[in-house]
Design a protein that fits this description.
By secondary structure, the protein is an all-alpha fold. It is built from eleven helices and two strands. The protein binds calcium ion (3 copies).
Length: about 230
Amino acid sequence: MGGAVGKVVSPKKEWIPETKLEVKMVEAMRRREAQGTSIKSFNSIILKFPKIDESLRNCKAIFEQFDEDSNGAIDQEELRKCFHKLETTFTEEEINDLFEACDINEDMCMEFNEFVVLLCLVYLLKDDPATLQAKSRMGMPDLEATFETLVDAFVFLDKNKDGYVSKNEMVQAINESGERSSGRIAMKRFEEMDWDKNGMVNFKEFLFAFTNWVGIDDNEDDEEVEEKD
Ligand SMILES: [Ca+2]
Ligand SMILES: [Ca+2]
Ligand SMILES: [Ca+2]
């Protein structure tokens, strides 16, 4: 078999997950995929936008509940307490990973949109047998239905089921829908979702994009106080 010597096998471009959390997200996504998705077309995702919008806005009440000192952000201590209340089986390390992953502006606080993403990740990850306990604890059927929709939408878009939506997969989903005009918009949206421009969108990026699209932002009433040393 000397013939193969020296032959360079070009590695398939593969995504290397950055954190254990990301690995878990991908695994959870695959489990969901195995259960089947309720989303069958690109347009059905779009049709669900208003419902998603409404129910994500309702997260505000939960957010305020966890924001004990009512400063408009949930700090690590407050988050720990809220995980405690939910009786999740997340470890300290996992909670910290979730916090870091969702603290996009790196100010060590969960603002509202970051919190929405975090809740949805908790929802996704709780189907891990180890965190199953948390399942009934969320007690927000409406919100859970929305998270379910978001997970299903992602699973629908992720054609090759590797836990990431690539640009090609987005194109494929749009072509299937046969709606060219919404297709153009969708591609623009994909560019928005793909922050690091690596041509892949993970579930977290997907969720953040949603909180933007449905108009959730928390800048309504807080003034920017920035301090640099
Ligand atoms: Ca707070
Ligand atoms: Ca933050
Ligand atoms: Ca994929």
